[in-house]
Design brief:
By secondary structure, this protein is of the alpha/beta class. The chain contains eight helices and nine strands. It has a single domain (about 10-265), classed as 3-Layer(aba) Sandwich (Rossmann fold), CATH 3.40.50. Helix 1 crosses helix 6, helix 2 (about 60-75) runs parallel beside helix 3 (about 95-125) and helix 3 packs parallel to helix 4 (about 145-165).
């Protein structure tokens, strides 16, 4: 595969799920891949993916990881942001602290990684940033409000960033998966138990879990990443799965009340 952006890739959240399969794909495609997890160390081994420590909620940890790679390799040409977790509960039951925590990982952490990597990409006048979004980033899911909100925010930031860095030769794109069979981490708001919303919340979450169990493996995201890497001007976003592409199209075409009715029927 022709490498348009150089061959040093940084994959945030590479220890499992989407991040892991994407990191493996990049390594097998000739990239020198640095993957991150909170439990890794800086003792680089001979594995095809060099795992290093990075906690997206810790500014110093992010800076140390990025500086380490630049010191070792001189550059970062591809950045793939995959961190994230879900939070179940009604808006009323989710505390401000819990809402801030999910935004720290799903949005602010990604933003800070980007801010640390951009200077080297701008200097080199080339680079690719790919953020893993979600169908929940354009379809608000009941009882997953803060997850949806964090992904909506990621979508908005990525769209603006794409325009801001274009003149520096840096490309920005997103991949928006739907329900997939992965070990996706989902927490439950503390106040969701014994809540007046509890029964409906549990029904919605169980429906989502069942859908994930029947969904595709994380490898489907690799197909979209592959397309982005090959495009001279990558798409703003690539939605994973024809059914979710259809959902996105219908949201644009149908009145909001009809979309709300359909989502209500599903969950």
């Amino acid at each position: 595969m022709k490498q348009k952006y150089g061959k040093i890739a940084l994959v945030i959240g590479a220890s499992s799920g989407v991040g892991k399969v994407c990191a493996n794909y990049l390594a097998n495609s000739g990239y020198n891949v640095y993957g991150t997890s909170r439990k890794a160390t800086f003792n680089i081994n001979n594995d095809k993916i060099h795992m290093i420590p990075l906690d997206v909620t810790d500014s110093l940890s992010i800076k140390q990881a990025v500086d380490y790679i630049i010191e070792k390799e001189g550059t970062i040409s591809v950045l793939l942001n995959c961190p994230g977790y879900g939070l179940s509960g009604s808006v009323e039951d989710i505390s401000t602290q819990e809402a801030k925590a999910i935004f720290d990982t799903n949005f602010f952490g990604i933003m800070e990684v980007i801010r640390n990597v951009l200077p080297i990409m701008r200097k080199n006048q080339t680079g690719l940033i790919v953020n893993i979004s979600s169908v929940a980033g354009f379809i608000s899911i009941p009882y997953q409000s803060m997850y949806s909100a964090s992904k909506y925010a990621l979508e908005a930031m990525s769209e603006a960033l794409r325009i801001e860095v274009k003149s520096f030769g840096v490309k920005v794109s997103m991949i928006a998966p739907g329900d997939m069979k992965t070990n996706f981490k989902r927490e439950t708001a503390k106040n969701a138990l014994n809540s007046c919303y509890q029964a409906r919340c549990e029904k919605a979450v169980n429906k989502m879990i069942a859908s994930e169990e029947k969904g595709p493996e994380a490898i489907v995201v690799v197909k979209e990443l592959k397309k982005i890497l090959k495009q001279k001007n990558p798409s703003i976003r690539r939605v994973v799965g024809w059914q979710y592409k259809l959902v996105g199209l219908l949201k644009k075409l149908l009145p909001a009340k009809i979309v709300e009715f359909v989502i209500t029927k599903i969950y």
